[in-house]
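Can anyone check this?
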Amino acid sequence: MLSRMIQLLKLCSFLALIYELACADPLNDPPDELCSSTSNYTAGSPFENNLKKDLFLSLSSNSSFKKFYNTSSGNDPDRVYGLYMCFNYVNGSDCQSCVSLATTDIVKLCPNSKEAFVGEEFCQFRYSNQNFFGQLDVRGNIPKQNEKNISEPQLFKGVVNNVLSNLAKKAAFDPNMYATREEPFNDETIYALVQCGTDLSANQCNSCLQKAISDIQTCCYFSVGARLFSRSCYLRYEFYNFYKVSPSSTKSSVRKIWMIIILTVVPVCLVVVLIAIVFRLAMNNKSKKRKNEIATQGSIFCTVPDQHNADFQHQNFQGRNDQQDQEFPYFDFASISAATDNFSDSNKLGEGGFGTVYKGILSDGKQVAVKRLSGCSEQGSREFTTEVLLIMKVQHKNLVKLLGFCIDREEKLLIYEYMLNSSLDYSLCDANRRKQLNWSRRINIINGIARGLLYLHEDSRLRIIHRDLKPSNVLLDNDMNPKISDFGMARIIEGNEREADTTKIVGTYGYMAPEYAMNGLYSIKSDVYSFGVLLLEIITGIRNAGFHQSKRAPSLLAYAWKLWNEGKGLELMDPLLTNSCSSDEFLRYIHIGLLCVQEDAYYRPTMLSVVQMLKGQTVTLCQPERPAFSVGRFTDHYETNPDSCSVNGLTCSGVLPR
């Protein structure tokens, strides 16, 4: 009881801290705007089309991998110029969310205005009918201040002025025109940040920030925190470390909700929790007795349980599933053995590093693919657990459907839907089957894979990184629609995390992002890299693995980059696509592929941006940076006996569940 009371006190302290942070943030109100009152556009005009259909889309599509971007759309006199500046501590996803929000707010706040500016929590956004790129503009600076005042305003003013002045000089000569500093003040710490648009010169940046410092010192020196929006720069200081806190967890709407919860709901909840604790203690003996009764009945997952198997189930599946769950049923080992003719070689579909896949026909006539893992392999057990628990939680038309599973002593089985057209790897390997992949079908496959990854990264209940995307892990159904499979290597990224690391590198060389292959660092951008390799393979008919043997380049990526820069991108086209693909569309897809495989993960787009690029012909694509040029022998941890199979250098790999 005492330990539970201590936990409650800690909870109260934590909630009080959140409340304090919420009160400390000066931006709990709507975004701030500057609108032109002298120049307006009419609804349906070319200017409006250039602004809303082209400029907004172009800026938004670049915001996932660029913190600052400016561009223009249309021709004079209806040409519109625009830019956004995300604050440098904001990650790509939150930058994109902020820019998307800004495009909505700026239209609401400045309807029909030909010139407008809006300052959001994590970015600022601006457009005009006049070219303002590289021009200093400090008109109408917008200061914001915290409602809480400082006890020693004059002393505080001097310290803040010194901190900001030093930061202004530092940012002016920083490549990102960004600087932060932490300065002790009494028993607390001042956290300060300044940033300029990177289209400015060093002198312009310094001038903008000096004007901002002057404005903020005039209006807000007595506040514990303040910020200032300028068309050309931005500054902020607080008594808490705002630039190291995840933006997603500190948005103003969330803070308001927390304030309401703390002030109204939490006291009631605490009373309820105390009552629940008393009730829980009273029920403990009965609950323990019932659990012991259940334990003596044996495992619900297997027909012939043993202690090793029961421990494994208890650790990984207890409380997660049930034999009676018709959406994800248990299969007994005897029925699966019968369905696969006792796992006969004639029913073998393929072999992988963690097991063999067999075709099976259930008693009701339904065809399935059965993945059989060895219970002796510790790695196989982890892969089995990961795959079951992940696919239980995700459902999407472009992800393979797991029909059920079984554990029987050392046997661990996964039962999947059967895919008539096997894997994408098989279709690309076989020259006759590749003829069936016209341009339309290849684009459908690319789009389906992209949507499946987007679901894993952004739309599912969990943020999942696949970590092993490659042709043999993309299955094709009766209509050649793609389904991503094999989640044994997948990892869940908790909360608002964007990346993680590991000491054990697993995956497939040729498809692994360089930061993962060399440093064990993986993120959603690692999957984007793999997708880019896959896209290039699909449209060229050439495989990255083994490409170095052609002596044309160390990898397909290096070869594509070379031809792209020489203006010879069309030489990459699969000869089988000559009659079904336009030159412009092919080059556009090469462009998107090269954006995905850039060496620096920061510059790769998110899958949301990729899906938008694949959809829209009007999206302006930025120029890709140099890809990662992998060298040496590429090996696939699933491949056991690859066979050469085409003049384009493709090799066949083992097929996993189909």
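Reply from J.R.: I decoded it. Residues 427 and 433 are 5 Å apart (CA to CA).
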